[in-house]
Amino acid sequence: MIRAKRRGVALGALAGMGVALALTLGAQGATGPAQIRITDVQVTYRLAHPANGADAGTIETVTERLYNPRVTRKPIGRGVVTCTFVDARNRTCVATYVLPKGTLVAAGALQSRLLYEIPVVGGTGLYDNARGTLTVTATHLRPRHEVLLFRLVG
Question: Mean of the per-residue pLDDT values for the chain?
Fold first, then answer.
């Protein structure tokens, strides 16, 4: 009797794992194929160095105002980029962009903030479970202006 219960629990767990795996592999972004081209202006830039002064572990935090100059001169949202340096040049970053109809999140490794491409790993609202890439191109340095091109896949 106990052996049969254990076998039933094990089979149930395996079936549940199979369903979870199938759902995960089959999951696609709720957002269909789309391109979003907006600009940003850097508002703040901060570096927090570790107590020992090493490059590794330095945290870079940037806040931005987001614009769609084709629609309005007023900001349409805000962005926050947080990077952790792994050595003097390489860093891993997470970027969150809050837009009027949802939030987009991108994350990846980069060396320079002048030109880079990182994956879009998710979102909320209109961009629920978004996937694709984000290409960032700096156009001015003081104050920093960038063009953000989100290429979202279905």
Answer: 85
| This prediction's pTM | 0.78
The predicted-structure confidence for 56-96, as pLDDT tens digits, reads as follows: 999 999 999 999 999 999 999 999 999 999 999 999 999 99
> Do 15 and 54 share a domain, yes or no?
no
User: What are the CB-based long-range contacts (under 8 Å, 24+) for 59-66?
Assistant: 59/83, 59/84, 59/85, 60/84, 60/85, 60/91, 60/93, 64/40, 64/146, 65/40, 65/41, 66/38, 66/39, 66/40, 66/97, 66/98, 66/99, 66/148
Answer yes or no: do 9 and 39 share one domain: no
Domain span at 12: 1-28
pLDDT at 53: 82
**Are 19 and 83 part of one and the same domain?**
no
What single string gives the DSSP state of each residue in 84-108?
EESSSS-EEEEEEEEETTEEEEEEE
Task: Indicate if 48 and 64 belong to the same structural domain.
Answer: yes
Query: What CATH number corresponds to the domain at position 130?
Result: 2.40.480.10
Confidence of residue 104 (pLDDT cuts 50, 70, 90): very high
